[in-house]
Amino acid sequence: MPQKKSNSIKWIAAIGGVAFFALLIYLSMRQTQQKYEVCVAFKGSTHCATAAGSTEKEAVSSAQEIDCQLLSNGRDDLMVCLSREPSSIRQLPQ
Questions:
Q1: Domain ranges of the chain
Q2: Contact 37, 63 (CB under 8 A)
């Protein structure tokens, strides 16, 4: 009798593990539904970065942060760069 109980616990754990990983994969793919290329012009230089996110705002913000980090020199420049509108925003196909 203990052998049957042990096997059923193993099956339940295996099914639970598979379900957990399937849920993780589903949620990961769902989070990156929007993909954008954002170009930022700052202090005479321009940089374009691509980012994905669950919403347009999240994707654009992430790409702009990448651009500004590469174009700015120090925290103050970074804050000024992030407060400006990007020079171009383009949605990319999935």
A1: 1-31, 34-91
A2: yes
